[in-house]
């Protein structure tokens, strides 16, 4: 007697979504405020990330993390940063019903003079200097 074969079964596999659902990145408001303040201190000091990292005695990656709102640096790190920038770290508690004070704005940076074009530089080189008459 021939063996009976099981009937074929059609299995439906759900189709994979065309694009993965975007991850919602939720940042902690406190971490965002700290990151913004750390960056504003560095910019107000006129330092690049590399120069600020050297001043702090840390890596540029670590400094970037301190300026990233997804991370919350330790109080010890923040105190070290404040000292390096010539500031003092102050922590305070305020009642919820009192409006938060507006943060002080850093002084605006002086505008750079316009860059001279290559043509202007070559004209300056060709122009003879005026002679002084005594």
N→C terminal distance: 129 Å
Count every helix, treating DSSP H or I runs of 4 or more residues as helices: 5
Low-confidence stretches: none
Class by alpha and beta content: mainly alpha
Q: Return the string of H and E elements.
A: HHHHH
CATH architecture of the domain at 27-91: Orthogonal Bundle
What CATH calls the topology of the domain at 27-91 is 434 Repressor (Amino-terminal Domain)
Strand content: under 5%
**Estimated radius of gyration:** 30 Å
- The average pLDDT is 78
CATH homologous superfamily label of the domain at 27-91: lambda repressor-like DNA-binding domains
CATH class of the domain at 27-91: Mainly Alpha
Helix content: 25-40%
């Amino acid at each position: 007697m021939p063996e009976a074969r099981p009937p074929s079964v059609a299995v439906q596999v759900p189709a994979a979504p065309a694009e993965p659902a975007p991850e919602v990145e939720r940042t902690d408001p406190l971490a965002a405020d700290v990151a913004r303040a750390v960056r504003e201190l560095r910019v107000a000091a006129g330092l690049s990330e590399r120069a600020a990292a050297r001043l702090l005695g840390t890596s540029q990656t670590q400094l970037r993390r301190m300026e990233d709102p997804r991370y919350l640096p330790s109080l010890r790190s923040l105190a070290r940063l404040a000292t390096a920038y010539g500031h003092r770290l102050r922590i305070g508690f305020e009642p919820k019903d009192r409006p938060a004070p507006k943060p002080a704005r850093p002084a605006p940076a002086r505008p750079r003079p316009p860059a001279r074009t290559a043509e202007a530089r070559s004209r300056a080189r060709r122009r003879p200097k005026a002679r002084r008459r005594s």
